[in-house]
Amino acid sequence: MILEYILNAFCILALTFLWTITLKNYKTLPTIIPVHFDLDGNADRHGNKRMMFFGPVFCTVFFAFVLWVSQFPESFNFPVKINEGNAERQEMIAKVFVKWLAFILTLIFINSQEFLLRFVSNPSAKARFSLFSILAVVFLSVAAVIIVAAVLK
Questions:
Q1: For residues 80 and 119, what is the distance between their CA atoms, to the nearest angstrom?
Q2: How far apart are the C-alpha atoms of 38 and 25, rounded to whole Å?
Q3: Cross-strand partners of 37
């Protein structure tokens, strides 16, 4: 399905952007950087700048895992009973959804990485997207896929 290929392309573009901003800015970072922030956006834990690679590595491994697991959609846990009449449709919904989640996860790490880079030079900087808005997108996505799967059962 074309939507799968489009989501793969978006994931690859997002991963490329995440790696690019990380590699481009790595040398200019101080040795110790903030690696965790409280809900108000204040740094509450610091670590070595090598921690900047956690996000890109994690997202790359996760996307590779999604690509691999998408080859076996019959092993997914579906919100509806699967039969011969709906198996292909439900499997497509599930594959698109896990790739959508991989894309959202990469966007979350891009937001975090970009915030960290701005915070290093300006401690009053705030994240462009709040934790609440990110969680809302994730939960709304889960609700949407359950509804779509139920409607198209």
A1: 45
A2: 23
A3: 43
The residue among 138, 140, 150, 139 whose CA lies nearest residue 90 is 150
Specify the residue for token string 């690019």.
Answer: 20
**What end-to-end distance do the CA atoms of the chain give, in Å?**
18
Classify residue 28 by its DSSP letter. Answer: T
Position 47 scores a pLDDT of 92
- Residue at token pair 């959609």: 73
Alpha-carbon span 49 to 27, nearest angstrom: 9
pLDDT digit string (tens) for 34-48? 988 887 778 889 999
Q: What is the pTM of this model?
A: 0.85
How many distinct helices (H) and strands (E) make up the chain?
A: 4, 2
The CA-atom distances, in angstroms, between 50 and each of 23, 47, 130, 144 are 11, 8, 25, 37
pLDDT band (50, 70, 90) for residue 72: confident
In one letter, which amino acid is 36? Answer: H
Q: Where are the beta strands (DSSP E) in 29-112?
A: 32-37, 43-48
Q: CA 93 to CA 146: how far, in whole Å?
A: 10
